[in-house]
Amino acid sequence: CNAMANLALKEEFQFKIVQEGGLRRLNQLASKAKASDVKFFVALAIARIAHNPHLRTQMVALPEDDATGSSTLRALLHLSRPPPETPKRVQRQAVEALALLSLEPPNHAKIVRSGALLPLIRQARLETPVEFRTSALRALFSVFSS
Fold it and tell me: What is the pTM of this model?
């Protein structure tokens, strides 16, 4: 997962990860991984891919009811559960990815239906580091202003 997170830094690899099924695998790992390091690198990789505005709609368009557990929103909601269920560093990366996905108007309805507003609201609190709080607030503004 660390390697996938490193590859996800480069735009050319972000497209390949999504096209070749790497995102589906990351989504599956999100719910199956037990080790917090694995969860962190899964959340980090998804967040890095979500930085690419050309992939955000495609990331959310993965089947929501896929029995394989490959829904990106489901994976991020699982990883965004508050501590102690999920370590803060995992939760912050997962909500960062949700925030980035929320910036695209075509994703708004699915974001709201999935229940992703609650993790965004939690991340918008004052005790959250400013860079994560800013992303959450921008995402909430984007969703509620459309």
Answer: 0.92
